[in-house]
Amino acid sequence: MIVGAMMTTIFKILKIFKSFDIRKKLLFYSLLITLISVPVLYFFSQHIVYSLIIRENVDYEYRYLHISASYIETFFETIEGNIRQIYNNEAIRKSLTNSRLTDDFSNISITTNIITRELDSILFQQNYIDSVILLGINDFAYYYNWGSSGHYLGNNFNFSEFNDKGDILNNKEEGLPFYFQEKTLFTGTNKTEGKIYNLLNNRLVYLRKIRDQENTIKGAIIVSFYPDFISSLTASDPQKNLVLYDYKHELIWSNSNNHDKIALNNTGYKISSINNEQQLVVQEKLNPYGFNLIAYTPIKNILKELYNIKKYSITYSIICVLLVTISSYIFSKKIAEPFHKLTDKFSEELSLPNINYQDENINSSFYNRLSIKSKIIIYFFITIIIPNLIFISILFSTYYNIYRDEVKKLSTNNIKMVKENLDYNLQKIDEFTKRIAYSSQVQSFVNKNNKDNIPIDKFFSYIKMDKPDLLALSLYNTQGDNLYSSIYFNTFPVERVNKNFFAEMENSKGQLQFLKTNNNYYTDSLITFSRTIRSIQNHNFQEIIAYAVFYLKKDFFNLYSFSNLEDKSYFLISTQDGQIINRNDNGLLFKSDANILSLLKSEDTSLSYQGNKYLVSQETTDSHNFKLIGLVPYSQINNKLIPLSKINILFITSCFIILLGISSLISLSITRRLNTLENAMKRITKNNDLSIQVANQGNDEIAILTKQFNSMIKRINELIKENYQVKLHESKLMFLEKEAQLNALQQQINPHFLYNTLESIKWMAYTKGALEICDMTTALGNFFRGTISKDNKFITVKEELQHLNNYIYIQNLRYQDKFRVIIDVKEEVKKCKIPKLILQPIVENAIEHGLGELEEGGIISISGFIRNNIMHFTIKDNGIGIKAENLKKIRDNLQSEETEKSSDCGIGVKNVYKRLKLYFDSKGNLEIKSKEKQGTIVKFSMPVIFQEK
């Protein structure tokens, strides 16, 4: 029903459109094309930029997730290393396999202290560990909470039963972290098992079973974490939502409290509806753990600037439509004006001038010499193509600027990402060094002034396993003398490390201090930090008892991971006074610290250096106030803009070609009728062909010209035909007059001879008693008397019937009464006049061709009546009828101008038809109907002619 209504509306619009004149049509075409092209151009161009911005943000999100994922993977690798140390620790393994351990409470206490001490050494850095649970085959269950002492969980624990029925130890993904969530509350009777479930519930769990050489399970190590630790491993962004799923697609962590479960795909990113809002979803897989880190950002935040352009686009669109309307109104009037004048002149004078198509007014202007088609194309070029190209150029220019700003913003965001990475690493270094400074091993070594380096060496080896970026550690007393150094040849006083060491440490206020190193005993580039060691005896943290100096690899800043993501982006870390700490440009950009210092003092966002221009971004770390400088070559930014520029050029070119094609088609549709009309005029002029009628549609000026042209040709043909028919009629009348004169002469010669001969035959028959011959000659005489009568060509129907009866009587004698004739003619008809001998030829045809082959029973019925001043006669027989193909020939013969000497219908019937047409034209008609073996019906009609007329 809706489709039907739409089609009806469309047909109504088309009907209205056809009634438009040329000016309205041109205006309509211009507005219609513009109203269609403007939104199409807008939405298509918006979609292109939308896709490019989304793609650029996807790349940025990939970088963001890749870095966050690398932090998480590094974290799990560290945990794996810690668990490996626990697994290989002989003291811990022995404690979990000693069969008599749980029989003696004192042994349990001693074992608990041993395990706690070992774990304190191994888990030197917290690494977000919540707890460590150790389960032994000797039914020993131990719980370690980082930062506090270990606990014995209880003596009612059965390892074998827990291993068999527990869904923790039966986890098939051993060695992979998983999120443990108890679906129902623990209802068992074993309190120790209940404690274990409660400690692990809603936590991220890392499981490793302890096995002997025969692969027999001897215990288990379970490490748990609060999932919120992930927030510290990912860059903070209030507009970004992060979600972490485990390999079972169970939610581990999210920085948003309200979100739908996100379905993953294999493409890496998608646009999906989350929380009833369109979001850009990007995922990064954490191998080999099977985790999926997902970031989703509201599309409205990404495309904020793109959405803001709508109001400008509406303004551009309105201006474009107004421009098209005004220009169309002006130029359509100029094009349509000659048509108005021509149609007005055509209406006044209906004539056909002698046109010379080769003539050309050489004095007319260039525009006037152009063809209508060229003028219309120019019209559309001015009113459609130019405004639309201006519109799309402005639109794409605006989109180009938005996309360029988006690329620059994302490039700038990279430096923020690096800054987040640096702050994270510096925070970890701060926690790491603080843990060393206040460890029992370091405190004991410094306080006792112990010369035995074995315990501290063992402690440092554990530290290096946990923090491979740490190359060396040196301890100095308050006078600056070296107490310990992991570099055996670096036993010099602290002033050899930094001349202003004590002054800088005094200003540090106990915080981690960055040192400007004077000497480097490693071949690798180093970064040096130091911090004070305060006494923890009696919980007094005021007394400085020593200083610690830490030597770290510069790689811990991880700058090259960012430069790999951005092919030509450079990052430099420097102090506030311009000293370069680390860089990833291999010294290509700046040869001295003075260049860096000048850049730091400048607030410019762009830099020209050695012929290249760079986008400059600066950030300051929260720790140590390091300056981070990011330089992105504008060539790299421009390379990202090249696809949009190419699309822009291609799109504008395509629009130009399409609009030009549409304009040409519309021009062709308008001028085609003019060309047709022009060709028709040429045919008339050159070939005198007046049979032309030009097809016409619509109601515009061209349609009016076409109608008037057709009317003119039709009128000329009518005049020619009327003149021809008058002359033809005159010639026929002259022929008939001559024929009448000839007949009159013949009738003057023949009558007396015919009458005298027939009268002699009649009396001879009578004298000899042959009465039938006598009657036959009497009837024949009467028939001839009627035929050669000198009266008018028209006689009464009554006289015609009398004449017909004489003919029928003669034929009955001939055919020995094989047929009979039934006449049913109304009295009012008998008084009217008809052409003489109009019935006899038809009856003769019925007898000769219809009843001739019958043995008996032939019937001919003749009827006549008047209806609407028309006399109708019907002659019907029950003879053998006429075959279909013969009937067609008879009908064709009636219409033919030629006279056939031999025909099934005879000369008489055609003579009747021709006389009816000659006397009465279209009002005289004759019709033959027949079927084989079903008889024949002949009907003819003519106007009523009363006797007195």
Structure description:
The chain has 949 residues and is of the alpha+beta class. Among the domains are: 438-557, Beta-Lactamase, CATH 3.30.450.20; 559-637, Beta-Lactamase (2-Layer Sandwich), CATH 3.30.450; 813-943, Histidine kinase-like ATPase, C-terminal domain (Heat Shock Protein 90, 2-Layer Sandwich), CATH 3.30.565. Helix content is 52%, strand content 19%. The chain has a 6-stranded antiparallel sheet, with helices on both faces. A 5-stranded antiparallel sheet has the order 8-7-11-10-9. Strands 13-12-16-15-14 form a 5-stranded antiparallel sheet, sandwiched between helices. The chain starts with a helix and ends in a 6-residue tail after the last strand. Its EC number is 2.7.13.3. It catalyses: ATP + protein L-histidine = ADP + protein N-phospho-L-histidine. This is histidine kinase. InterPro entries: Bact_2-comp_sensor_kinase, HAMP_dom, HATPase_C_sf, HATPase_dom, His_kinase_dom, Sig_transdc_His_kin_internal.
